[in-house]
Design goal:
The protein is of the alpha/beta class and 200 residues long. Helix content is 32%, strand content 24%. The protein contains five helices and nine strands. A hairpin with a 2-residue loop joins strand 6 and strand 7. Helix 2 packs across helix 3 and helix 3 crosses helix 4. About 3% of the residues have low confidence.
Length: 200
């Protein structure tokens, strides 16, 4: 079965690194397919149409995928639309993983600084009204702003929270370093592990 993977990343500083990581994966086994890997011009055009159009665009990009791989650079953790892609991935039941790409050289041969784990900036918590997403914003946990509906516990592939304490998504997912851990060889296995954790 083809393993279709959505790659989430911060476009402007990291697109060169992201392309290199993505291409090192798809040029190998024929059943590895990268869905939802968008050219920045397409992303920006959708953003100009408004938030609703962009959200629809990103949800469409996740269709037919079973894993979401967050390619983390220095500031990916703070990006609104990366967070949205992560939240929609959880709702869809995708496996999740973070791959740090700060050590991958850009088009000028430069590396970057390691950033925080984007999956540690989104979490879930429980109230008497149900389970909700939270995001780390302004130095504290707040209700996630771009999706405020309760989440059915049956929709989560990981253990549902049982209190108002926020449980970070990163506590259920793995994080890797592409440059330090030989990602060119190993990323396929990392993606399969994430799929397995989510029973995908």
């Amino acid at each position: 079965m083809a393993r279709k993977t959505f790659f989430s990343f911060h476009y402007q500083p990291d697109v060169w690194r992201a392309w290199n990581v993505r291409n090192s994966w798809v040029v190998k086994p024929a059943d590895e397919i990268a869905e939802g890997f968008f050219d920045n011009s397409v992303f920006e055009a959708s953003k100009k149409e408004g938030e609703t159009a962009l959200k629809n665009f990103l949800r469409d990009g996740l269709k037919n995928t079973s894993v979401t791989c967050v390619l983390a650079g220095a500031n990916t953790w703070s990006r609104r639309w990366v967070r949205y892609e992560i939240v929609r991935s959880v709702l869809k039941g995708n496996g999740l993983l973070t791959v740090d790409i700060h050590g991958v050289k850009d088009k000028d041969g430069n590396v970057s600084e390691k950033g925080a784990d984007p999956l540690a900036q989104i979490g879930v918590y429980k109230t008497d009204k149900g389970i909700f997403f939270a995001e780390w914003k302004g130095g504290k946990w707040v209700q996630y702003d771009d999706y405020k509906l309760a989440i059915p516990s049956a929709d989560l592939w990981f253990e549902a929270p049982n209190s108002t304490n926020v449980v970070q998504l990163s506590s259920h997912c793995l994080r890797y370093d592409f440059a330090a851990q030989n990602g060119r060889t190993n990323i396929g296995g990392w993606i399969e592990t994430a799929a397995g954790l989510a029973n995908r």
